[in-house]
Each structure stands twice: as structure tokens, then as C-alpha cells.
Structure to design on (801 residues):
């Protein structure tokens, strides 16, 4: 018999991975669109465009990490699902929110930044490292979100 | 260990010796010739000299020619370009070997001609393929394509949309004239291909009758054979073109052994174009020319020795107020890689202070602290060591991997203290595969005790910022307004000590003293007394920016945890499937991902702490980089021949 708390915790874990992956998909897609335009002019820039394109993909992975970690803590993989009380479930739900919301929004912001870096490498390919650095600045906030989620889930159960 | 002192050079020399002098300047490699255009606005100067004409465009054109020939060799000759060029050493004399150069330029011209021929070949092929595609539907017509009439009849080829039924077409033709026949040659998804034979007297009437069916007349010129015959002819020509192209490509490929020499010539041309850019800045008179520029003071002897070889007049002078002096930072081999970090921000102003040795210990330690893993540290260290030893990269690449060695060491040491080797790989592996729990020794476990790490990071940040303020005071005394710098800085220290004492003893008096110190000093530049007080009170607001700066160092803790957490998650994921092969695959891929993402992230954040928090306290930026006329080669290293 599954408790309400466990169910709520599952919603949280699902939102963590679902939102973060949606954001990453949007971000990666946005860079891909800009990149395809560049490639039509200069197919030789494929490697550079690809590097920029994967940058906003990390949030999705962080979301997956958070989902995985939460499910593992709840005993989902080991087969002995914990029976969480409702307050416990709600707090796990809350703990999952940072990477869900932060991952979703930061991936989109990072995607736009990386897409701008794609147009940078059209004009000045030698300045690519600066474009990457600017996109990576956004990454920091996704890492903070993952950290917050991780520390909370880690100490809650 | 500092910003190099610069001297100004003024030089007048004979036009006849210009080429040799340029070569001499390139040889010493320490003079940046600057634009002397202000001289030309002076009428007395303008009467004597004018801007020298250089042949930059000419040399550039040659660089392009050689470059495209080298590209062609890569494309057709299978010459691979390495990620890291292993540079061979070469003497100046060999670099400027005229005979070799002429020969390679000829080869390059030949290769470029061949490339052009290949391009023509392709466009011919495109044209023929287009014609062939147009003929294919008519293959079944056994009538010469360009013969549109006989003695009494007209033969018309044409198409109409496929939706028209053959019966309707036939009926229309028959209705218009009984002396006509229509036949379908071919039909595809869009069109019907028709052949119509008409008596000459009714041709127009028949075509008119077909107009409602959107019939369009197709003409074929210069095709004496039937469609099938013409296609065969085209196929033969196309095959010939292909063969010819293969021959041309092979001919290009036969030059591939010259690629190595071409690289040397490319470097020579780069040196040539640099000389021409310098040449452009000369002012030319009837028989002499004038040049001015900058060189580092410590190269004076070498430069004098070189200039003495020529018939020229020269003088050296110290920079004057208002001169834009180019900046060159000279540091020991250990600190030099740090240039990569400062150059990305901005060079120091000429009268500023060289930040490289100052940020060196902080940057290297912060990076290690944030990455903090023995496994990753060793990978960075070994890869950097391998590349620097094997390929000896120069320039930014060289900086990068030299820096990598230091960062790798620092990461490994910090990782040792927090007991992290690919996260908790040791514990996980021993538990899963050996059935016993082993843990690495750790001074502190950041996951169990993050607050200690946080405090440590923030204290480190405060130390760095106070250090930055000390530099500001030092700069103040150096430039003769030490008191100002002291008054800018010391009241803040009084306030911080006051905050500390208040927290420790609970009495508000120390804080009030600190605040009063700020109010009394920070508005001192304002002219009126109320202005001074207001300025002082307003400065209290800066406490927020200090707070922001201090909290910014919390990222030291955050990123250290991030590396460890992601590494741990990779380890857990790897053990899940329960097989050793899956473990190895997930372990390797996961840790490479973590290494990659954290490498860039940590670098950026270690740099950012210098740029914003540290530089904000003292740094004077905006220096113009010193770009002397020197060898800037890509493929070879020019070794100095001291006897030359």
C-alpha cells in the first residue's frame, strides 16, 4: 500500500527530471536552429557548433541525476519502497523543485546565450572560447540548483 | 616580474637599406613601430616626408594563393593537419631561402590552376547532367531530337500536365485536324511527354487546340540523334570528364611531398607580411626614411648592436606624459601561463601593476579547491604533461597546458585532503566488488560538513580582498598619493574589525566607531562640509557591495560540492547494472562528462573571482598590448643564429 507521501515525492522527482529535460530540449533546439543556419554557409564549423549545442544539454542530465537520487533514496530501485508520511513526501517534493524550475529556466537562458555564441563564431571563429565562457556562466546557477536539491534530498531521508 | 619599462625609438635611415633594416628589426624581434601620422599633420614634416607605400596587398595575395594550394593538398593529396603541430627548428637563412620559395610559389600556382580546372570540370559536368536529365523521358522517341520537320510534316515534342487524359488530347487533336497524330512517349508523376506529327498546313491549328491542356512546346538544339543516342553520347562525355578530373586530382596529389616545404614558405610569408605592416608605418623622404616605435628597455643593448650595422641615426627616449605606451608583462616561467587569464580580461595600464604574480597563488589554489579530486587532478596533470613534452605548443596553447600542469597538481592535492578519488570511487568499488568497505583518509568531508568548507572559502576571499587593498595602498605610495590610498582603505578595516568585535562581545560601540571612521573620511573629496558628510554617509551603502563580494566566495564551496556530488552519482549509476563491463563503461563516460563540464566551469569561476572581486580592489586596466615585429610562425621555430 503506497502512502500519499510517497506519491507526492514521486511527483517531485518526476517534475525534477521532466522540467529540467524540457528546458534542455528547448535550449539545445534553439542552438541547433542557429547552428544549422551557420552550417549552410560553412559546414566546416560543425565541430564548433556541436560543442556550443551540447552546453544547454547538461540541465537535463542534472534533472535525471536528481530524479535518480530521489528515487534511490526512496528505495524505488532496491524494490522496497519507503512508506513516507505526507509531510515527508511534501518536503521531498519541495527539495526537487530547485533543479526542476532552475534547470528549466537556466537551460533556456543558456541556449539563447549559446545561440548568440554561434553567431559570434561566424564572424570571429577565434573568439569561440569567450562564447563558451559566457554560456558556461549560466551553468553555474543550474549547478547551484542541483546542489540545493541534492543536499536537501540527502538529509531529508 | 612586472610590466616591462619601455623606451621610445626614433630612427632615420637610408631608403636603400630599408629591406635589410626591416629584416634586422625582425631578427631582434623587440621593436613595435608605431604610426607616426601626427608628424604628417605638421606642415614642416609634411613638406619633407610622405607615408611610405608598402606591398601588404601583394604579400597577402601570395599568402592566399599558397594557403589555397595547401588546402587543395589536404583535400586531394590526403595530407593530414595535426591538432598540434610538431614544430621543427629552422634557421633564419633557411626560412628566407629564395630559391625554395620561388619553387614553392610556382608549385602553388600550378596547384591552383589545377583546382580551377577541376572547378570548370565540375560545372561542365553539371551542365551535361542537366541536359541528360532533360532527355531521359524522351528515350522512347525514335526520331532525331532536333529535326522538327520533314518535307510535308512538322514534328513537335512537348509536355502537358499528367492530369489530362490521353483520350481528351487525342480527341482534341482529331477535332482540330484529321491530318495529325499524337503519341505519348512517356509519363511521370507530373508530366505527359508527347510527340505530335502534323501536316504543315494544320500545325498551328493543332497546337492552338492543345493550348487549353497547358501544352508546352519543347525544343532541342544540336541533337542529330534520337534521345537514346544522345544520352549515350552524353554518358561518354560524362565519363571522360570524370576520368579527366581523376587525373587532375592525381596531379595535385603528386605535389603532396612539397607540403612540408610549403609550411615553411607560409611562415616566411607571414614574416613578410608582418614586415610590410611595419613598413607601412614608415615615413618616406627622398633618400631617407623615418620611423618611430617602442622597445623594452632591457633589450636596448641588443637593438643598439643591430642598428649599428646600418647607416642610420637613432635616439632613445623615455616615455612622456600622454604617450600611449604599449604594455608587456614579463614574468618567470612559472607565472607566465597566468597571462592567459589576465589577457582575457584586459592588460594592465602601463602605470598600473602587473597582476600575474599577484593572482597566481589564488587562481591556482581556487581551481584546485573547487575541482578537488585526485582522479581528475591526475588526468589534467598527465594530459598537460604529455602534451607539453610531446608537442611543445607555443602561444596560448602553450600557456594553457603549462597552466594545466599547475592546476592538475593543485587539484590533486586538494582532492587528497577531502579524500576524493573520482568522488567516492574507492568506497563504491570496494563495497561492490570486494565486499569490504575502504575509505580514503580525509581531513574534511565536504558532503558531511559543507559549512566548514564554506567558512574556509569566505575567509580565503576576505584575505584576498584585503590583499588587493594592500596593493592599492602600495600603488598609492609608489605614485606619490599614499595618504589618499590609506584613507580610502583603512577606515574599512576599522569597520570590519569593529563588526568582528561587536559580534564577539555584543557591544555596538566598535561598529559605531568603524562607521564614524567611514563617514569622516570617504566624502573628503567633496568641496563643502555637508557634501563631505553626505559622501561619507553614502559610502556606508558600499557595505552591500562588500557583502556581495564576500558571499561570492561561497562558490568555492558550491563548486567543490558539485564536482563531488556528480562524481558520486556517476559511481552509484555505474554500480546499478551489477556487471563489471557496464560499470567500466558508465564509469568512464560519466567521469569524462564530469571532468569536461567542471573543467570549463571551474576555470571560469576561478578567473571570475580574480576579475570581479580581486581586480575591483586595485586593478588599473586598459593597457595596449605590445606587438613587436617578430617571428609569429605557425609551423616552424626560428632559431637564432647568434653570428648573424
Amino acid at each position: 500500500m503506497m502512502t500519499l507521501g510517497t506519491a507526492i515525492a514521486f511527483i517531485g522527482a518526476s517534475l525534477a527530471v521532466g522540467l529540467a529535460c524540457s528546458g534542455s530540449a528547448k535550449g539545445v533546439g534553439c542552438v541547433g536552429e542557429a547552428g544549422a543556419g551557420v552550417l549552410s554557409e560553412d559546414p566546416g564549423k560543425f565541430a564548433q557548433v556541436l560543442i556550443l549545442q551540447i552546453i544547454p544539454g547538461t540541465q537535463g542530465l542534472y534533472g535525471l541525476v536528481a530524479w535518480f537520487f530521489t528515487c534511490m533514496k526512496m528505495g524505488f530501485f532496491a524494490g522496497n519502497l519507503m512508506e513516507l508520511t505526507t509531510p515527508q513526501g511534501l518536503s521531498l517534493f519541495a527539495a526537487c523543485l530547485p533543479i526542476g524550475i532552475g534547470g528549466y529556466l537556466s537551460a533556456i537562458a543558456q541556449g539563447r546565450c549559446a545561440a548568440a555564441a554561434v553567431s559570434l563564431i561566424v564572424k570571429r571563429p577565434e573568439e569561440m572560447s569567450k562564447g563558451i565562457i559566457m554560456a558556461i556562466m549560466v551553468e553555474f546557477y543550474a549547478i547551484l540548483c542541483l546542489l540545493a536539491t541534492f543536499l536537501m534530498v540527502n538529509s531529508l531521508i | 616580474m612586472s610590466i616591462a619599462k619601455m623606451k621610445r625609438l626614433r630612427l632615420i635611415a637610408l631608403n636603400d637599406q630599408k629591406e635589410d633594416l626591416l629584416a634586422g628589426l625582425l631578427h631582434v624581434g623587440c621593436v613595435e613601430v608605431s604610426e607616426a601620422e601626427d608628424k604628417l599633420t605638421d606642415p614642416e614634416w609634411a613638406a619633407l616626408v610622405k607615408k611610405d607605400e608598402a606591398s601588404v596587398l601583394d604579400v597577402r595575395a601570395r599568402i592566399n594563393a599558397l594557403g589555397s594550394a595547401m588546402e587543395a593538398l589536404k583535400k586531394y593529396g590526403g595530407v593530414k593537419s595535426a591538432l598540434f603541430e610538431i614544430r621543427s627548428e629552422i634557421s633564419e637563412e633557411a626560412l628566407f631561402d629564395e630559391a625554395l620559395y620561388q619553387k614553392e610559389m610556382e608549385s602553388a600556382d600550378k596547384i591552383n590552376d589545377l583546382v580551377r580546372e577541376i572547378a570548370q570540370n565540375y560545372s561542365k559536368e553539371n551542365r551535361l547532367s542537366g541536359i541528360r536529365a532533360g532527355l531521359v523521358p524522351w528515350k522512347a522517341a525514335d526520331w532525331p531530337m532536333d529535326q522538327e520537320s520533314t518535307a510535308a510534316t512538322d514534328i513537335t515534342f512537348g509536355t502537358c500536365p499528367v492530369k489530362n487524359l490521353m483520350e481528351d488530347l487525342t480527341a482534341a487533336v482529331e477535332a482540330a485536324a484529321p491530318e495529325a497524330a499524337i503519341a505519348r512517349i512517356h509519363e511521370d508523376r507530373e508530366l505527359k511527354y508527347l510527340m505530335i506529327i502534323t501536316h504543315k498546313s494544320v500545325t498551328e491549328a493543332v497546337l492552338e487546340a492543345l493550348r487549353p491542356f497547358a501544352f508546352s512546346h519543347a525544343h532541342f538544339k544540336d541533337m542529330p540523334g534520337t534521345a537514346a543516342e544522345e544520352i549515350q553520347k552524353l554518358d561518354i562525355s560524362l565519363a571522360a570528364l570524370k576520368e579527366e578530373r581523376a587525373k587532375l586530382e592525381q596531379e595535385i596529389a603528386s605535389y603532396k611531398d612539397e607540403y612540408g616545404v610549403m609550411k615553411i614558405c607560409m611562415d616566411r610569408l607571414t614574416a613578410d607580411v608582418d614586415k610590410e605592416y611595419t613598413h607601412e608605418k614608415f615615413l618616406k623622404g627622398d633618400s631617407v626614411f623615418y620611423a618611430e616605435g617602442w622597445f623594452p628597455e632591457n633589450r636596448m643593448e641588443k637593438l643598439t648592436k643591430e642598428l649599428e650595422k646600418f647607416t642610420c641615426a637613432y635616439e632613445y627616449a623615455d616615455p612622456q606624459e600622454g604617450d600611449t605606451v604599449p604594455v608587456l608583462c614579463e614574468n618567470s616561467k612559472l607565472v607566465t601561463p597566468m597571462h592567459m587569464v589576465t589577457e582575457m580580461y584586459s592588460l594592465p595600464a602601463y602605470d598600473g601593476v602587473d597582476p600575474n604574480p599577484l593572482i597566481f597563488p589564488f587562481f591556482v589554489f581556487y581551481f584546485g579547491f573547487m575541482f578537488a579530486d585526485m582522479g581528475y587532478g591526475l588526468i589534467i596533470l598527465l594530459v598537460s604533461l604529455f602534451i607539453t613534452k610531446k608537442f611543445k605548443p607555443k602561444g596560448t596553447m602553450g600557456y594553457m597546458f603549462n597552466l594545466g600542469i599547475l592546476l592538475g597538481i593543485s587539484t590533486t592535492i586538494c582532492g587528497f585532503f577531502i579524500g576524493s578519488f573520482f568522488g567516492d570511487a574507492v568506497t563504491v568499488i570496494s563495497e561492490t566488488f570486494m565486499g569490504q568497505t575502504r575509505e580514503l583518509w580525509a581531513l574534511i568531508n565536504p558532503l558531511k560538513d559543507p559549512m566548514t568548507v564554506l567558512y574556509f572559502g569566505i575567509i580565503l576571499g576576505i584575505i584576498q580582498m584585503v590583499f588587493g587593498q594592500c596593493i592599492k595602498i602600495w600603488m598609492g605610495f609608489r605614485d606619490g598619493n599614499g595618504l589618499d590610498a590609506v584613507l580610502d582603505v583603512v577606515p574599512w578595516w576599522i569597520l570590519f574589525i569593529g563588526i568582528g568585535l561587536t559580534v564577539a562581545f555584543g557591544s555596538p560601540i566598535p561598529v559605531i566607531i568603524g562607521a564614524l571612521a567611514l563617514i569622516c573620511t570617504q566624502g573628503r573629496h567633496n568641496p563643502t562640509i555637508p557634501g563631505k558628510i553626505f559622501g561619507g554617509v553614502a559610502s556606508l551603502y558600499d557595505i552591500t557591495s562588500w557583502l556581495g563580494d564576500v558571499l561570492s566566495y561561497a562558490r568555492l564551496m558550491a563548486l567543490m560540492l558539485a564536482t563531488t556530488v556528480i562524481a558520486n552519482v556517476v559511481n552509484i549509476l555505474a554500480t546499478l547494472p551489477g556487471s563489471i563491463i557496464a560499470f567500466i563503461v558508465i564509469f568512464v563516460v560519466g567521469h569524462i562528462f564530469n571532468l569536461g563540464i567542471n573543467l570549463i566551469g571551474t576555470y571560469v569561476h576561478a578567473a571570475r573571482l580574480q576579475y570581479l572581486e580581486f581586480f575591483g580592489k586595485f586593478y588599473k586596466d586598459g593597457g595596449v598590448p605590445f606587438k613587436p615585429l617578430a617571428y609569429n610562425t605557425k609551423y616552424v621555430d626560428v632559431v637564432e643564429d647568434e653570428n648573424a
Remarks:
- The CA atoms of residues 19 and 100 of chain A lie 5 Å apart.
- Chain A touches chain B at residues 58, 61, 65, 68-69, 72, 77, 130, 132-133, 136-137, 139-140, 143-144, 146-147, 150-151, 154 (CB under 8 Å).
- Chain A has one domain: 4-156.
